[in-house]
């Protein structure tokens, strides 16, 4: 098999009707050792395989392996490559190679590098909206406590990913609308609950319980770690005067915390919903319905007010 | 006793050390030592354990820098910063510790550090030279491309000797080259050394075997406590005067009357075998007597002791201690049955060098010093005091790491570990006095004799006639894994030697 | 005998060598430097911050105590700590329906067994611990992922929350760390097992020839280590209220860093629980200073590495000076 | 007494490993529903190119009886420097990566050789420090390499199955094999790995050799990082421990002994090819990643247990106890 010598087939709009049965999809997604990825893979694979699509599992959490696997996918000449971009820039060249080989690519979750933006189909989670939702949660929560001003700490996911960067973009923009609330610390928690807890403990010690009014843990499991740290340091969390904490993609632990009143709110971006929508997109694509090049999954803000509606959706991981 | 007149084959001094001194921490190992070696001379360096011989050797061979003093070779005063520099000035060395690499082949070992082997590997160009070297030390059965790990310890030692001989040195230093060799193998070393000396090389020979020293060497320099006592022509010395120089006193040999009376059977061995190494050894050990298995390297003597200690996984045979059967192949099983073992490799299979003397002495009896798994300090210190006295060590030093002791004193600690234990019935010792000076040797012999009298079965192996005659009541000679003969009571050395080197075959024929 | 009577040996024996004094000097300078840096750092000297330092040292510290046992016993390191902690954390949370104490016991048993099996292979067969535990880390993570399908485990009860208690304002894990440090230290110093462990760690072959139960001692050390990993796992899981294969985070290298920073040599035969405790606190304190002064995570990790390097060199120089 | 040369572990293990994995690879179509193509060979060699320099670096230090855990740190730093300094001119980036790697190796080697330190804790500390440094340099962010021509060049197919990157890696192995087999370096490297003290006494320049080996290890790791960054068009501040683990597996399969003193570059090459083939089989057959993980665990576990010295004793003991005692050969009885 080769990469560059089949250009004549390239222009064919791979889907072009004919239904799903017998179609092959090479799936270079997140590895199952990540809880988000695990649930996504399960929902996605079940749904498509149920309709006769043949899925080849090339998932991994290692960016280098992902490139090798993507190249392998190209050589397999499937009807479609579905990929998650662990490392945005290292996927630029493989995506271009796929384009040359005439194999369509669908990217889900995080957006691709701008240089190949037009070359792939995309089903994206709305990271900026997630950041906005987190900021709204904080502002709303603080205002409900009657605080006009307040200091906020943020512990992010791995800073090198677009997911964290885009969330911060949305978050910062929304916070800028309420200048009386100030972000005093932003630390990289590396999507790691243990590290997040450690950093939170130190930040709380640094500023004291009354030095921090709000906190943003970029994923629920990070927000939960912040809450635990705060409680261990003897700070009050939630309630009439305690620290307002928010997450921004929902996990079961977060939903429990919202119900317990310690987490003010979160937002969706649960793997099940994106998986459903991605699978749905592929269905439409193979059925020749020509879906729009980019679809954004609608993200919802979750707080105590509507937590019941999202409990089921958010409790898979 | 100042320096005696030089009586050498050539009167010109080639190598001179002047006022050489060296301290390790608080220990002054060598104090202002001076002596000279002439071209073509075989010069012995003698002294008790820890006298500083090896330290002098290390300074002469570039392994340690002197704190003070000069080393001259020819007319130059040299700064021997490393082995390479020393080699460049023509100093070849056989170290006290075996210094060949088991993972390399014989030929590769001969090439190590050899200046004549260049940076590029040029195939077989040196093969003939290496072959001749090996043949010269009696290793004609050993192949150049054979991995060294396939050779026994004595053969390895001979390879190291061959390597040093092959370097065409101006000064050849041999630090106890024959300690691990049998008498027959040692003869090869003597012959080679004589040949090299005849070619004009100066030779420094360190040994505790005083007989060989007097036979082989031209002059003898004796050291005591780091200082040179005297340099004397060998012809003017006898073993007794030499010992007197070394120790300042004459050691007591065990008197004939000290020989033990046989008691009950403690250890009963039937058909002890190790594939390809030991074939059906039968032995009955009684308390009160000291037994020896005697044989050259490779005779299976070491193997027999190691098998009894549970260190040879494929050993078979029937072994009973006080009538109870012992399962072979597991050291813990042997220990439980009351067998204590002193290996011939005290560095890697013996002592805990970086632990205090106390820990080393008590390592084998932790069980007796604990109650419910917790160490009882009272028992610990009582046992320690008793042992330290028993072994003739200084109480003051029990907290010091064993590494800081000289080889001979390390050996005393090692032997002491098996003594004065209620749970020990059999004491096995492989070369119990390897590298130990005359005084230390007598002390260790006394310890073993006492142990036997206390009701233990004592079995040791040795390649040295003197030791066999001094210590053993019963000697079993071994040759190529087979028992040759059992001797009760005093046996002429010549008989033992013949059996150890040639087996029983010729005798049967005669 | 003659040698022992040598006069030069007499007095000087107990005196400290120059190298020892020099290394002590360096240690003093470093501690003073850390203190000065701390004192000049805003908010470093406060009860809250001291609590924070202890808190962040506590979980790594308990793990590191386990690793200390392994290292003293001469089996170098375990590189499977993170994965063990993650897997045991999952077990702990999913067993919450049994109640806190049974769940805790179950976790300790599982942790001890998983680690003890590796110890048995190292102790009895002489397998290389580094490679073996790399294999174990893959195996544990693979099994955990396979069993859970990668989904996070949530607690099946609420008993775990007791582990997040803060008696007298300090997290329970700090008390546990102090108690376990004292317990492990006592075991090492006062029991026959402790002494055999030091001996086995220093020279395995010699220990075997001396008739010490090398395999059993090593296995016991690893069992103990596994139990300590499990304690960390329970606290970490309780803290995060959910567990997946990434729960252990960077614990493996954090624990190694703490043990090495405490001055326990990787070659075995030496070391103590109290030193490990101090190592964990040192690293936590320095990280804290750097964080308070606004340095990034990268710089904190860099400094952690340099501390470990410095201590390794110092300890080595000191030991060597003692050997001379 | 002389055993066959092929029966020695430094040859037997890599040849067996390579042979077996090759068979598994060729048989993949029989159990997984896939076809093999020349691209699969290309991809195997790409995996080789990714791990090869690391395996060689680790292998060389292991032969010398040391264990350089810092290779992955140098690898990460090398990749990052390549991207940050080589945006305009790839040569600058490459030079920076290799030079820094060599310098790090030099310093570590000097510490280890000069103070006679054990290498594990030193390289472990360096590893932690280098990851921190890389992360500090990049602010924790993945950095993009925008010189796409280089990216395309290093991975373009050459003779169908090769790429410049895999050819460079194979060249490195050839060079190392030539150096080690053709000069005293190889012999002395094995000597200091087999018995450090004895080699020193024999007059081997142990210190210099160690420093050179660590420098080579650092340079190779830096180069590996640079090549990877060129290929990916980016540099990640934390490559994880997976590269280290696979490189270690490759070195062990390559016949290098954990105790030191044994191994050769061509054996290493066979070992890394075996690992690359396995990785490719996992990819072609689309095994879930946890299955692959379990597979590597089993592989490493088997190697390390088979290599375990005391197990041999145990097996011998067991065999001896199950077998009746041998009758002593009659003709030798005196
Ligand atoms: N590296 C060292 N560190 C500390 N002390 C040492 C060291 N090397 C030797 N010593 C001490 O120096 C003294 C002289 O030792 P040396 O090895 O030279 O004795 P020796 O005469 O060769 O004894 P032996 O006959 O037992 O080999 C001894 O007391 C020994 O303990
Ligand atoms: N690995 C081996 N495989 C096969 N035979 C061996 C092996 N090692 C040694 N031998 C042979 O076994 C015999 C006994 O060897 P060994 O060196 O153990 O004797 P020994 O008990 O040490 O003798 P000594 O009493 O002189 O110390 C010798 O003939 C030797 O060549
Ligand atoms: Mg000596
Ligand atoms: Mg012997």
Task: Tally the beta strands of chain B.
Answer: 22
Give the tally of β-strands of chain C: 0
Question: Would you identify the regions of chain C where 5 or more consecutive residues have pLDDT less than 50?
Answer: 1-15
The average pLDDT of chain C is 88
- First-last Cα distance of chain B: 52 Å
| Derived structural class of chain B | alpha/beta
- Level-1 CATH class name of chain C: Mainly Alpha
Domain module count of chain C:
1
Q: Main sheet of chain B, how many strands, which sense, barrel?
A: 6 strands, mixed
Query: How much of the residues of chain B is beta strand, in percent?
Result: 25-35%
Distance between the termini of chain C: 21 Å
User: From the coordinates shown, what is the CATH architecture of chain C?
Assistant: Orthogonal Bundle
The CATH C-level name of the largest domain in chain B is Alpha Beta
Structural write-up:
- Chain C: This is ABC transporter permease.
- Chain C: Its main location: membrane.
- Chain C: Pfam families: BPD_transp_2.
- The complex is a heterotetramer of chains A (317), B (510), C (324) and D (334).
- Chain A has 317 residues and is of the alpha/beta class.
- Helices cover 42% and strands 18% of the residues of chain A.
- The longest helix of chain A is centred in the middle third of the chain and has 18 residues, at 127-144.
- With 510 residues, chain B is α/β, with parallel strands linked by helices.
- In chain B, helix 5 packs parallel to helix 6 (183-198).
- By secondary structure, chain D is mainly α.
- In chain D, strands 1-2 form a two-stranded antiparallel sheet.
- Residues 328-334 of chain D have low confidence and may be disordered.
- Classes of the chains: A alpha/beta (317), B alpha/beta (510), C mainly alpha (324), D mainly alpha (334).
- Chains in contact: A-C, A-D, B-C, B-D, C-D.
- The structure holds adenosine-5'-triphosphate (2 copies) and magnesium ion (2 copies).
